[in-house]
Amino acid sequence: MPSHGAPITTDKDGTDGALASRATGSTFRDKATRYYSLTKPGVLYGNVLTAAAGFLLASAGHFNPLLFLALSIGTTLVIASACVLNNILDRDIDSVMERTKKRVTVSGAISARNAALFCIILGLSGLSILMAWTNWLVVTVGVGGYVVYVVLYGMLSKRLSIHGTLVGSISGAAPILAGYVAVTGSIDAGAILVFLMIFLWQMPEFYSIAIYRHDEYARAGVPVISVVRGIKNTKNQILIYTIAFVVSTLLLPVFGYVGVVYTIVMGLLGAYWIWLGILGIRATDDNSWARKMFRFSLVIVLALCLMLALGPLLP
User: Fold this and answer.
1) Furthest C-alpha separation in the chain
2) Which terminus of the chain, N or C, has less C-beta within 10 A?
3) How far is CA 232 from the centre of its chain?
């Protein structure tokens, strides 16, 4: 269910090595911290936040606390399992990336065998909760997102194709869809729109990282767009996807899911993000501009989650 990194984190793949490096002792707390770092907390909670936003939008004020609790716990465990498995599979890439080379699966602080067992326990626990207390559509979305993230993205497209980000963004949009259909039990216009929003949002977010982390990806041999097609093309793609994202957010009020307050807030924030994208076309300091685009991507997705939750209740 998670994205190729994280909808909401300090960097797309997270800096989990920093967390792991602070827990090199042998106490229970140290071990727990190392295992916790395996779940990529920034990725984990960012995805769960979008799932909650989808749930609250679909609820439209008719909140079911038990269903919400089951969705949140089950989704958290399934995403954590996928992140742990991704850590196992990405050891070769992580070992040459500056921000990931201290991860516990790279340093050997946790063996691949123990990490795999942890992954299985998390996955089966989360899936059992979703199967018992949500609906078949949530389970389908969860399993589908898991497979896309681990296999189609992590094992294949990330390593082989420039289109890995597109594939990863499908799994990144799965949590908000799961949250929405947990309430509705069906796919409707709202479900399609929230999925589309998060899918499109990830493209400029990750492409921004691909610019200022260009050299690291090049060393690791990961064929991201900035490495394969250059910075200029990447900046053009960022602007295109930013505009598409903003348009998708403004379709929600057209279908009557939210009102004026949502429209004004997302319209203003979206306009500013587009303006930043336009500035990037002529920017001379590409890294500095890309970091600004990335930082604002976090602001706008947090605002989006808040407005999805409150939008149905506001004018």
Assistant:
1) 56
2) C
3) 25
Nearest to 176 by CA among 154, 157, 201: 201
User: Is position 136 within any domain?
Assistant: yes
- Number of Cβ within a 10 Å radius of residue 240: 14
Cβ(49)–Cβ(7) under 8 Å? yes
Q: How many residues make up the chain in this entry?
A: 315
Q: Mind spelling out the 3-state secondary structure of 17-38?
A: HHHHHCCCCCCHHHHHHHHHHH
pLDDT > 70: percent of the chain? 91
| Residue in 81, 66, 87, 169 with CA at minimum distance from that of residue 127 | 81
Give 120-139 pLDDT, tens digit per residue.
999 999 999 999 999 999 99
107: tokens are 């340093």
Which residue range is the domain that position 30 belongs to?
Answer: 16-313
Tokens 């296999």 identify what position? 151
Dig out the tokens for 263 from the structure.
Answer: 């429209």
203 within some domain:
yes
- Total structural domains within the chain: 1
- Global confidence as pTM: 0.91
Return the half-sphere exposure (C-beta side, CA atoms, 13 A cut-off) of residue 250: 15
Contact 315, 258 (CB under 8 A): no
Helix or strand (DSSP H, E) at 88:
helix 65-89
Alpha carbon distance 69, 125 (integer Å): 14
Identify whether 201 is part of a domain.
yes
Number of helical H runs and strand E runs in the chain: 17, 0
pLDDT digits (tens, 9 = 90+) for 11-44: 544 445 545 545 455 788 888 999 999 999 988 9
- Say how far apart CA 198 and CA 1 lie, in whole Å: 12
Q: Residue with structure tokens 């203003």?
A: 268
Which one-letter DSSP state was computed for residue 152? Answer: I
